[in-house]
Amino acid sequence: MWLNILQGTVEQGLVFSLLALGVYLPFRILDFADLTVEGSFPLGAAVSAVLIINGTNPFLATFLALLAGVVAGMITGLINTKLKISGLLAGILTMTSLYS
């Protein structure tokens, strides 16, 4: 019983460690407060869930979910560079649009 709880805890910790890296890298190393990660996580989950339910290979679905997250990050970058909106606001705009 406790081994199953420990395994679930480790699995969730590994998933959230990816989220933490996604926030840490742009914020500390690139000096860009990017909040797109919080919106791209549910986007990737939704993309992979829809694809797997429709019979797509789970590995292909995971890769396509990754590409969806990349596109979300690119949109944030384009909003920042082309529209001259601050990085924090661009991330908030993209995150909000991904949630809705």
Description:
It is globular and about 50 Å long. The model has no long low-confidence stretch (mean pLDDT 88). By secondary structure, it is mainly alpha-helical. It has one domain. 84% of the residues lie in helices and 0% in strands.
List the helices and strands and how they pair.
Elements: H1 2-29, H2 36-53, H3 58-82, H4 87-99
Helix pairs in contact: 2-3, 2-4, 3-4
Q: Structural class, from helix and strand content?
A: mainly alpha
Mean pLDDT: 88
Order of helices and strands: HHHH
The overall strand count is: 0
Low-confidence stretches: none
- Percent of sequence in beta strands: under 5%
Described by the principal axes of the CA atoms, the overall outline is globular
Distance between the amino and carboxyl termini = 38 Å
Total helical elements: 4
Q: How big is the Rg?
A: 16 Å
Biggest beta sheet attributes: none
Percent of residues in helices comes to over 70%
Number of domains: 1
Q: Can you describe this structure in just a few lines?
A:
This protein is mainly α. Helices cover 84% and strands 0% of the residues.
Task: For this entry, give a set of tags.
mainly alpha, 0% strand
